[in-house]
Amino acid sequence: MPADALQAERQRSGPRSALITKLESVARLTQEDRSALAALGEDPRDMGARRSIIREGEKPDHVHLMVEGWAARYKLLADGTRQITAFLIPGDFCDLHVTILGAMDHSITTLTRAKVAYIPRSKMDLLTGLPGLVKAFWWATLVDEAVLRAWIVNVGRRDAYEAVGHLICELYVRMKNIGLADDHCFELPLTQEELGDALGLTTVHVNRVLQRLRAENLIDLRRGILTIRDYRALEEASGFNANYLHMDRGEDGAASADV
Amino acid sequence: MPADALQAERQRSGPRSALITKLESVARLTQEDRSALAALGEDPRDMGARRSIIREGEKPDHVHLMVEGWAARYKLLADGTRQITAFLIPGDFCDLHVTILGAMDHSITTLTRAKVAYIPRSKMDLLTGLPGLVKAFWWATLVDEAVLRAWIVNVGRRDAYEAVGHLICELYVRMKNIGLADDHCFELPLTQEELGDALGLTTVHVNRVLQRLRAENLIDLRRGILTIRDYRALEEASGFNANYLHMDRGEDGAASADV
DNA sequence: CTCTGTAACTAACTTAAGTTAGAATAATGA
DNA sequence: TCATTATTCTAACTTAAGTTAGTTACAGAG
User: Fold this and answer.
1) Rounded-to-integer distance, Cα A94 and Cα A72, Å
2) CB contact under 8 A, A75 and B149
3) What's the start-to-end Cα distance of chain A, in Å?
């Protein structure tokens, strides 16, 4: 875990793409891997907040990569309610490998202004020649799956207070992992309605819970800036354990992400 | 969709493994693919009900394949409650590709007596030479992911009545797809407690809901045999749509699984 | 600097689902 | 076969979260 070295390298080469930072934390990439990844994020499309990236039923022939900003994966029910099943932040693929399935079974929308790379399938296919990347993409897919499982636990078995705390911990760790959080502070541009749609709660109840988290001095959330006042306590209160994010190299004795 | 031909072939070659049946429904497999798959399921281990297949924290070097019986993927919370995040039926891999991640972040247990194949990693690696299988395994992984998303919607945004109905529809379609359901009837060896752990409900409430589904003549459930009395109505009542199971070949105009 | 729309916040009341506790039925095993 | 244990089913009561209907506070547009 050569944190200093990483830091130094980052300063030398300028801000690294979130995707590279994310995959680098878990896989050893060659220079070739890195430049291939950098190429993926080139020429992202600028999008406004709340714009559709893909809709249920479509058959995209592009892969979408979040370069900047936030997006959400969601399903709409017949009665108009929405369930968000994932928050996408920089470095996340929206739909890696969708083309294997037929049509999209859910939709994706930006939440904030965002930069999204539209990568033609052909360009993705070229990467199959880089075994390091193939493995790294598998890793990303499996972590996405693990996050979905944790989400189910959150919604199914935790009360609202725990669930909100847990989600905040997860987002913090993920943001930190791509260099977008420091000192327990990061941009959280989600409305209370969006948080509710993610956790199966109403805005009213999300508000109650946030008030309580503030009153207990666990968090501070103002104008989209979230600060975790007492990370240990929040982790404890929400039963959070970062193991499912698998942010280590899977080697024995590997250092885990320090929070 | 040459249903008759399939039927005929099945009679000729005896009962096909659930895995082959499942993948065949969605990918075109060569004879070589098929015999490689058949080899995976050879020599399964006989297991009793409620036996651990893998536990959280372990680093398995085998891939587990369900050959017969039911299993569940679950997470245990600090207060002892359990959230089931998947039901595994014949033809399902328990942990395809786990070795890419480090340790397991959840546990898997049999629910009934079962036959589980323990496939050494080396044997799995040999399959990378068969592109048809690689793609079929990707398909299976992506469908697992889609099932997780549907599960979140179920727990987050549907009430108990809808959620139970939805789960029943899903299990029916999956069982039918591997040839273990006919005429809207299949073995459902889950206790009400297990159903509750899957949907984030108490046994008391699961019981109430099942009573209602029976009273409305939507289902019949006795001694682990479930019959869907009115599939259309159940689908309607629970907002079920099988699209997320992606049981077609992804080609235009492909027939979807008829229910 | 005011207008306007979105988001945050409150309060009072309702309800779906949880809790506790126990009876009635199956299974299972000695 | 009986005893034991697991599972299903009920009833009475409690509570976390939903609903409805607002008010307040911003932030951005003009």
Assistant:
1) 9
2) yes
3) 14
- Which contiguous run of DSSP H or E holds residue B18? helix B18-24
Query: What is the phi-psi region of residue B80: left when phi exceeds 0, alpha when psi lies from -120 to 50, beta otherwise?
Result: left
Count CA atoms within 13 Å of residue A236 on its CB side.
Answer: 5
For A37, residues 6+ apart whose C-beta sits below 8 A from its C-beta are A17, A19, A20, A23, A29, A133
The Cα of A63 is separated from the nearest Cα of chain B by a number of Å equal to 15
Q: How far is the CA of B40 from the C1' of D24 (A)?
A: 64
Other Cβ atoms less than 10 A from the Cβ of B94: the count is 21
Do A94 and A108 contact (CB within 8 A), yes or no?
Answer: yes
Question: Measuring CA to CA, which residue among A65, A33, A39, A62 is closest to residue A135?
Answer: A33
**Cβ atoms A72, A86 nearer than 8 A:** yes
Residue B115 Cα, gap to closest chain A Cα (Å)? 25
CA B105 to CA A231: how far, in whole Å? 21
Cβ contacts of B243 on chain A, cutoff 8 Å: 103, 105
Plot region of A94 (φ>0 → left; ψ -120 to 50 → alpha; else → beta): alpha
Measured between beta carbons, the chain B residues lying within 8 angstroms of A251 are 102
pLDDT digit string (tens) for chain A, length 259 residues? 444 444 444 444 446 799 999 999 888 999 999 999 999 989 999 999 999 999 999 999 899 999 999 999 999 999 999 999 999 999 999 998 888 888 999 999 999 999 999 999 889 989 989 999 999 999 999 999 999 999 999 999 999 999 999 999 999 999 999 999 999 999 999 999 999 999 999 999 999 999 999 999 999 999 899 999 999 999 999 999 999 999 986 554 334 444 5
- Within 8 A of A146 by CB-CB distance, chain B residues are 101, 105
Q: Which residues pair with B76 in a beta bridge?
A: B82
- Whole-model pTM? 0.91
